[in-house]
Give the backbone structure.
Amino acid sequence: MNTHSFRATVLTDESGNMRAIGYALLILSLLALIWDMTHLLMGVGVVHFAGILDIWTAVDRTSFILIQTALLKTSSLVWVDVLQPILTAPAALLLGIPGCYIVMKTQPEIEMRAPSMAEMELMRQGVDGREIRRLKRSRRIA
């Protein structure tokens, strides 16, 4: 009889928190897509995917200007060469790709195995699955 068993990984608090971050990124990515679709349906401007910079300036322009001027005063290279290209990239992709990666990497594995001969016989007799698990825990069946 061919039995396959896979080890189930135990989720720690850290991986649970990472999954929450991954799902939050996916939700933000979905919201960015909704933002793009509403602008497409309203006929506002050329069809393009909005970056975080576009959404940020539309929602709260004053906070954007404050952070931009502070960064330009300290180091204009950081703003021009690093942050501006990242913030102008499509927000749906910028948030969705890391979100998918995090969720997939922190997904718990499910333990799977084939039933033993004794379990198969009990199933044929119509014994409930909960009863079979109780018998296994009490070591009455293998």
About this structure: The helical segments are 13-42, 52-59, 61-74, 76-88, 91-105, 117-124, 129-137. Confidence is low (pLDDT under 50) at residues 1-11. Residues 117 and 142 are 9 Å apart (CA to CA).
